[in-house]
Amino acid sequence: MNWHPTAPLDQTRPDPADVFAAGLKLHHLANTAYPIGHLTTMRPYRLPNASVQAQAPLAWQGVERLGLYVHVPFCEARCGYCEYCVIDPALNAQEQDAYFDLLLDEFELWRQAADTQAKTLVGFDIGGGTPVLPHPAQIERVVAAARRCFHLPESVTISIETTPKIAALQPEKLNAYFDLGIRRISMGVQSVSPRLLNEMGRSATSLAYNRAAAENIRTAGFEKFNVDIMYGFAGQPLQSVEATLRHAISLNPDYITLYRMRYKGTRLAGQAGQVTRAEVHAQYALASELLHAAGYAGTPGKNTFSRLPGDVGTSDYLTERVIRGTPYLGLGLGAQSLSEVTLAYNAGAADKRLEHYRRMLQEGRLPIQDLYHLSPEAAAAKMISVAFYFGEIHLESFRRKFGRTLEQMFPAEVQFVLENGYMEYAAPGGLRLTPAGEPLYNGVIALFYAGAVQQHLLNIAPTPAPPPLGEGKLPKFGDCKRQSRLQSPNFGIQGGKL
Prior knowledge:
- This protein is an alpha/beta fold.
- The protein has helices at residues 16-25, 38-41, 49-58, 92-114, 136-149, 164-169, 171-179, 194-200, 207-220, 238-250, 277-293, 316-324, 355-362, 376-387, 395-402, 406-409, 411-419, 441-446, 451-460; strands at 65-72, 120-128, 158-162, 182-190, 224-231, 255-260, 304-306, 328-331, 336-338, 342-346, 368-373, 392-394, 423-426, 430-433.
- It has 19 helices and 14 strands.
- The strands form three sheets. An eight-stranded mixed sheet has the order 7-6-5-4-3-2-1-8, with helices on both faces.
- α5 links the parallel β2 (120-128) and β3 (158-162).
């Protein structure tokens, strides 16, 4: 299956300075989540529903190495910041067991349609939702299906996600996951601000849960332990970010991942305009400085900071996507898949309901809601957007994937970032954000979007443009005004309750 011919609008390249400015103005949209405005920008590449079942497997012919993501759409409560595919928690009890039956049906359909037993997994993530919410026996079924339907080398690290509450109160689950061969675990702490946690819908947690969870994770044997925290919330002061970071560091994880709040598709979407780009990047600067001081390494713009030498900190699945643009297959409600030339979304991606996903599987059909046959420009934008998780584009991986260098495909854009000092060439073979470019990240990433998406940004960008953030200089968090100095890692925490 070859590339789709490039749509006319994707053959255009607006002036880089204009696109850069639009990305800065729309800093809540211009990020690693790609595509944007897909109903219009991706319309030329959408395949008719009648052809999906035949075309989807063809895209995987010749793909020998891929990542696997299995989605578990259950949570105790839906958090206000969540943009992901999670069903109504009131339906958890009646749907959980049946859902895993459907997942195994989907595994089998792909085994038959794409001969997946001949394909080697280079990464395997089990995410959600809260994949540790169901009984561990269901996760055992998922891992067994992955081993049966794919070649899963022992060297691949399987990763799973947990909440502090479950890891603290149900340590037997952690032991069960470790016994299944899962070796990396990620825990969402998010914040230690009582106000923010209450607004998020995560008030049923505590510092004690976080500490007990970290202890239980280590006792179970996990040596790859990540903590997720979030920033960029409306009304979130620097003190709150610092308190969260200090608490996360005190849990002694191997990695800490920073997630900027992405308002689109969440219950907090109406607050997006209350957060300025300057505030967001001051918070990132604070986090970066604290993490480096605590021994966690991360280059400008990188989301995950690692204290393990030679370990970038992300799961094998995500690392392969970020560095090499490796194809990945997503199974489960609303899951996303990316072959070399197609982008697919499973049923439920839009409405977060099980009915359509269930019906398609019961009819023996791959549960794909939308399938896009990509042009090189659309695929390059997708690869580069994900690469900005590390703030860096791996040049040799790009050349191997597209048969052209980055400089050949984006000559004006590469010249723009180099001349302005926003990116630089860095070993081993990457084009990386500079400290001056990191605060302007949203403008930089937009430069590499496909032409239709760039035009979409230009059409909706507000005017006038905001002034440059310190003329590209990264603010020091110690220079930012604060109400008071923090006296302890528990600043802003009332009675130990988050």
